[in-house]
Amino acid sequence: MLDIANNMSSAAWPDVQSTKLDAARRQLETAISMLFSGGDAISTHTLAFAAFGILKDVAAHRGANSVLAAAAALAAAGKKGEFWKGFNRAGNFFKHADRDPDAVLVGMPEEENEALISIALAIYDGLGCIKSTELQTFSLWWSCINFQGVDDVEEPFMSWLSANQGRLHADTRNELLELGQELLHLLKNKPAPASGRSDA
C-alpha cells in the first residue's frame, strides 16, 4: 500500500502548473458552475471559501489595501463583523476537524454562497485579473439580480437582458439561479468574434 501511495504522489499531475491566482480562478469557476446547476451547497461553499482565502492573502501580500477595503464594503452595512464571522465559521467548519470532529453546523443559509463568490470576485477584479466566461457570467448575473449598473456589455448579453427583465424580479432563489445557468450557457456558446481576415 505504501509503494502504491509513493508511486501515485511521485507521478501525480506531472504536466500541471498553476499559480495561486490560477487556482483561485479555477475554484471560482467550478463553484459558479455548481451554484447555477444546483450542485451541492457545501461543496460550492468550500471551493468559494478556498478561492476567497487565496485572493485575500495575495491582496494582502501585495499591499492592496484598497482592494480589501472595497471587498469588505460589500458586507452587510453595520454587520460586517457578523458577516465575516459567518463566512469564516462555515469555511473553517468544512475545512478542519481536529478540534471538533463530532460538531454539527447549523444555520448557514445557502445564499451566503452567492455573497461569498461576489466578494471573492471583487478582490479578483481589484488585482487586475482577467475574467473567464464563468466569472463574467456571475458578475453580470449578480449585478442584474441586485439591480446594479452594468458597464461595457455587448451581445448576446443585451438581448438576454431585454428578454428576461421581468424574470429578474423572481420570487425564489431557484428561479434566479436558473437565470444564471441560462446566461452561462449562452455566453459559453456564443460565436467567436470575427478575426477581420479576408481570404478574398
Helix content: 55-70%
Q: Helix count, per DSSP?
A: 9
Total strands: the figure is 0
Number of domains: 1
User: Strand percentage, roughly?
Assistant: under 5%
N-to-C terminal Cα separation, in Å?
Answer: 64 Å
The shape is globular
Strand pairing plus helix content: what structural class? mainly alpha
Secondary structure blueprint with pairings:
Elements: H1 2-11, H2 20-37, H3 41-61, H4 65-72, H5 80-95, H6 112-126, H7 133-145, H8 157-163, H9 173-188
Helix pairs in contact: 2-3, 2-6, 2-7, 2-9, 3-5, 3-6, 4-6, 7-9
Brief characterization of the structure:
62% of the residues lie in helices and 0% in strands. The chain has helices spanning 2-11, 20-37, 41-61, 65-72, 80-95, 112-126, 133-145, 157-163, 173-188. Helix 2 runs antiparallel to helix 3 and helix 2 (20-37) packs antiparallel against helix 6 (112-126).
Characterise this structure.
This protein is mainly alpha-helical and 200 residues long. It contains 9 helices and no strands. The protein has one domain (21-188). Helix content is 62%, strand content 0%. Helix 2 packs across helix 7 (133-145), helix 2 (20-37) packs across helix 9 (173-188) and helix 4 packs antiparallel against helix 6. The longest helix has 21 residues, at 41-61. The radius of gyration is 19 Å and the shape is globular. The mean pLDDT is 80.
